[in-house]
Amino acid sequence: MNPLAANRLHLTRRALFGKTATGIGAAALASLLGKTVARAETAPHSPPLAAGLLPHFPPKAKRVIYLFQNGAPSHVDLFDYKPKLREWQGKDIPPEIQGGKRLSTMTSGQKAKPCLAEISQFKQHGQSGAWVSSFLPHTAAIADDLCFVKSMHTGAVNHAPAITFFLTGAELPGRPTLGAWLTYGLGSDTENLPGYVVMTSRDKEASCGQIFYDFYWGSGFLPSKFQGVKFRGSGDPVLYLSNPDGMDRTVRRGILDDVAKINQLKLRDFGDPEIATRIAQYEMAYKMQMSVPELTDLSNEPKSVLDMYGPDVKRQGSYAYNCLMARRLTERGVRFVQVMHAGWDQHRNLNTQLKIQCQDTDQPSAALVKDLKMRGLLDDTLVIWGGEFGRTPFLQGDIKDTRQWGRDHHPYSFTLWLAGGGIKPGLSYGASDEFGHNAVENPVDVHDFQATLLHLLGIDHERMTFKFQGRRFRLTDVEGNLVKALLA
C-alpha cells in the first residue's frame, strides 16, 4: 500500500479535528485581512435564541475610550461630598456602618477607624449642580457633559482582582477583556490599525507599585487576534515597525507574501485559527509601518488643541499624550482604546500625592471630552473614567500623623463618570450613605455596568457568548442588569 495512503488511514484525533476546522480558520483569515469585518454570531443555544449578526439593535456608541485609573481614586475626596465625615472627624466610624465588612490586610487589623473628612474643598458645578472637588477644576468645568455614577460597588478588595473583574467580568485572569469582547463581536472599522489599542502611564513620582499585567488587555479563551495591542511609552509605539537596514518596503512585501503562502498551507492542513492570527499580525505590522507614523505626527494638531491637553501632551508615554492619542485613534476607526494610569493608591501619602495625581490627569481627561465634542465624535464615542474601587471614608494610620494620612481600598461604594455615546449628561446617579461607606440608593455593581456598556454598543449582554470547555461564557457571567436611568 502507498505509505501516504496508509498514513491517512491512521489520522490522529488532533489531525482530524485540525483538518475539519479549515473552514473556520479560512473565515478568520478573511476577516483579519480586512476582506470582511469580524463579527460574532449569536450563540445557537443562548436564550433567547435569535440567530444573526451583531449588533443586536441600533447602537448609541460605535467606540469606547476607557480611562482606567489604576489604584482607585478616593471618591470621598473627589466626587462624593459627605459633610458627616467632617462632623465625625477623628471619631471611629459607627460599627453599624462598617458592619464588619471585609477590608484589605492593611486596615483589617487596625483597631481605630477614625472618620477623615475630605482633604480638598467641594463645590457644585454647572446647571446639574454636580459636586466636584477643587482638585479637579477642569473636570468640574465639564460637569454638565458627564454622568456620575455614585453607587458603584464591587466584591474585590485588592487591585489586580478588582481591575480584572472590571475588565473581564471575573476576578481570576483568563477571561476575555472588554476590548476583546467588542472586537470579537463588532469587528473593527479600520484595516490599518488594530481594533483594540492599549496605552499605559504612571505618576512621575512612582509613588505606588501598581503593575500593568498583560492579562488586563488579553483575549482569554477568544482567539488571540482579539487581544489588545499595547503601544509603548517610548521609541516606536510597536516593536519592529522600522525595516532593518538594507530592506525597503518592496523587499519586505515579497518576504511577507512568501511567508503568508507557507502559513496558508499550514492553515489549509490544520485549520488552526492561531495560524490565521499569525498571518494577520504580519499584515497588520506592514500596514502599521505607514499608519503609525502618521498617527503619532502631531505637527498638524492646532496649538489650541495641544494647549488644551496640558504641558505634558508632547511627552510620549504621559497620560496627556495618551489621551490625545486616544482621540486620534478613535477618529481613525479603532473600536476600543484602553488608557491605564497608575498612581492613585494613597495609603500613606494622601495629603501630598492625591493633589499631584489630579494635576496630572484632570486637564487631559477633560480635554479629551471637549476635543471629541468639538469634532462631533462624542455623540457616538463612550468615554469612561474610573478605578477598580474607592478609598475608605476612615483613616488608614494615625490621625495625629498628618504627613502619613492615607485611605485603604474600599469596594462598597465609589464613583466613576461617563460621557457621550448615549449616556445621559448632567446626571448624578445613585448615592452612598452619609459616611460615603455603602451604596444605598440605586446600587450599581460591576456586571450592571458592563451590561449597560454593551447595550450602548447595540449588544444584548445575555446573547453575546463564546463556547469554551463545554460552556457558553459571556462578559457578565450569569449576572448583570441594564441601568436604564443612565441612558440618554
Describe this protein's structure.
The chain is an alpha/beta fold and 488 residues long. The chain has one domain: Alkaline Phosphatase, subunit A. Helices cover 34% and strands 15% of the residues. It contains 15 helices and 17 strands. The chain has helices at 3-9, 13-20, 22-32, 75-78, 83-87, 95-98, 137-141, 159-168, 178-186, 249-270, 273-296, 303-309, 319-330, 350-374, 446-456; strands at residues 63-70, 122-125, 130-133, 146-153, 196-202, 229-231, 336-342, 381-386, 390-391, 409-410, 414-419, 427-429, 431-432, 439-441, 444-445, 466-468, 471-473. Helix 3 (22-32) runs antiparallel to helix 10 and helix 13 packs parallel to helix 14 (350-374). The N and C termini lie far apart (72 Å).
What level of helicity do the residues show? 25-40%
CATH topology: Alkaline Phosphatase, subunit A
The total domain count is 1
Coarse shape: globular
CATH architecture: 3-Layer(aba) Sandwich
Q: What is the number of strand segments?
A: 17
Radius of gyration: 24 Å
List low-confidence stretches. 3-11, 13-52
Strand residue content: 5-15%
Report, as a whole number of angstroms, the end-to-end distance. 72 Å
Structural class: alpha/beta
Q: Sheet bearing the most strands, described?
A: 9 strands, mixed
Per DSSP, the total helix count is 15
The overall pLDDT, averaged over residues, is: 88
